[in-house]
Design a protein that fits this description.
This protein has helices at residues 122-125, 197-200, and strands spanning 3-5, 45-46, 53-62, 65-70, 77-81, 85-89, 94-96, 113-118, 127-136, 139-149, 156-164, 179-181, 186-190, 213-217, 238-240, 246-252, 255-260, 267-272, 309-311, 317-322, 335-339, 344-351, 354-361, 368-373, 379-383, 388-395. The chain is mostly beta strands and 400 residues long. Strands 2-23-22-21-20 form a 5-stranded mixed sheet, with no helix packed on it. A 4-stranded antiparallel sheet has the order 3-26-25-24, with no helix packed on it. A 4-stranded antiparallel sheet has the order 8-9-10-11.
């Protein structure tokens, strides 16, 4: 296999005060003056854990990396590039040529190859899943596919789509899109509403896949217990609706949690439940980029769900994960969110589904698109730049 070697460094990058947290963080000026609907919904206690870390660059030279997945048995990492490539990166930073066998991908604006995930039965069938912008007769749609990853990590065979957003449209923006599994034979795929004033209102309609979470079986068929099965006015795949642009999703036990971009203010963390309407673009804690109101300028309405937590100003949330390891023992069970703006990582402490504290970490990383936990408990982050990196954050050795 022909490979190219990425630039990598085993030298820790430590500040003079070697901590990951940023104790000097301040909230910044709000864009709107909406009152939270409930306690602990906005601006939880600011935390500073002062954790000492060692930061290493595992690999560089990635073109707008979007998703990362950790392979079992210390087999390295799968990383997507929005430019349309799926690569294998070994633990020593060796980066493969693009893995072959993916379908045609529409690389335009926010579209391209997006998420990647190991299937629930990967150990037996080597099935991987991905999401991407699919070209459809000159238009664009969020799609999810799957295929078999070869043992030598060079190709995908038996590639097939298991979901294609409908309708396809001419706006290459707001694709979503994460794919996660519930452990019961279902996949959840998140979408966006393609951004424009014309398309965003479709997030409220059930005859399309815009601004939705869809729930499908692993082969793309429809679960019989989906909330709108049997409703002739609705698409059977729909699980929830009224979303803007969901780029983060995680299963916490049997609960699906998602995080979505707001406009100017109003990023949301949601407990996402079957059949429920999450309000966009009727209600929002943000405003138009022009400063005008969203809809009629309200943040609450009967029949529409409130976010568990929201941000103003934004964090521009992308990937999310729950930290479940012991390397950073005090963070076990905390929710981590990658931030595109102002950048870095956001850590949330939660108790019984309520956010009780927030910390801003490693802001100098800039645009962080996705996160993962390695087998040793270190945190992996990919940075979304033309010359993006895979970075490792591990506890610093303070014995010397």
């Amino acid at each position: 296999m022909t490979s190219r070697i990425a630039l990598f460094s085993s030298v820790a990058i430590l500040a003079a005060a070697p901590v990951l947290g940023q104790s000097t963080h301040s909230w910044g000026e709000r864009n709107t003056d909406f009152e939270p609907a409930m306690e602990n919904q906005f601006r939880a206690e600011l935390l500073s854990s002062d954790v000492q870390v060692e930061r290493t660059t595992v690999a560089g030279g990635l073109v707008h990396p979007w998703g990362i997945e950790v392979l079992p048995n210390d087999g390295g990492y799968l990383v997507t590039e929005r430019a349309g490539n799926l690569r294998h990166i070994a633990a020593d930073g060796t980066m493969s040529d693009p893995i072959s066998g993916l379908p045609e991908i529409a690389v335009a604006e926010q579209g391209g190859l997006l998420d990647v995930a190991l299937g629930p039965n990967f150990a037996d069938d080597r099935m991987i899943y991905w999401t991407y912008a699919k070209p459809v007769d000159g238009n664009y749609a969020t799609a999810a596919g799957r295929g078999v990853l070869s043992e030598d990590l060079t190709e995908i065979t038996d590639a097939e789509d298991i979901f294609v957003q409908s309708p396809a449209v001419d706006a290459p923006m707001h694709f979503g899109s994460r794919i996660v599994f519930d452990g019961n034979g279902h996949a959840f795929v998140t979408t966006g509403e393609h951004f424009t004033q014309e398309y965003r209102v479709m997030a409220q309609d059930l005859d399309n896949h815009f601004g939705k979470v869809v729930r499908i079986n692993l082969d793309g068929s429809i679960p019989e217990d989906n909330p709108f099965v049997g409703d002739d006015s609705a698409m059977d795949e729909i699980f929830s609706y009224g979303h803007r642009n969901i780029q983060g999703a995680w299963m916490m036990g049997d609960q699906l949690w998602t995080i979505e971009h707001g406009p100017k203010g109003g990023d949301e963390l949601n407990l996402t439940e079957a059949g429920k309407n999450y309000g966009w673009p009727v209600i929002s804690y943000g405003e138009q980029y022009s400063g005008d109101a969203i809809g009629t300028g309200i943040s609450q309405q009967d029949g529409m769900e409130q976010p568990v937590y929201f941000w103003d100003p934004v964090i521009a949330p992308a990937g999310m994960m729950v930290y479940e390891a012991e390397a950073f023992g005090d963070w076990n069970g905390d929710l981590f969110i990658s931030s595109l703006y102002p950048g870095g990582i956001v850590r949330l402490e939660m108790e019984d589904g309520v956010v009780t504290g927030e910390e801003r970490l490693a802001p100098d990383l800039g645009r962080v698109r996705d996160l993962a936990v390695d087998s040793d408990g270190s945190i992996l982050a990919v940075t979304d730049f033309e010359d993006g990196q895979l970075v490792r954050l591990a506890p610093a050795n303070t014995d010397s």
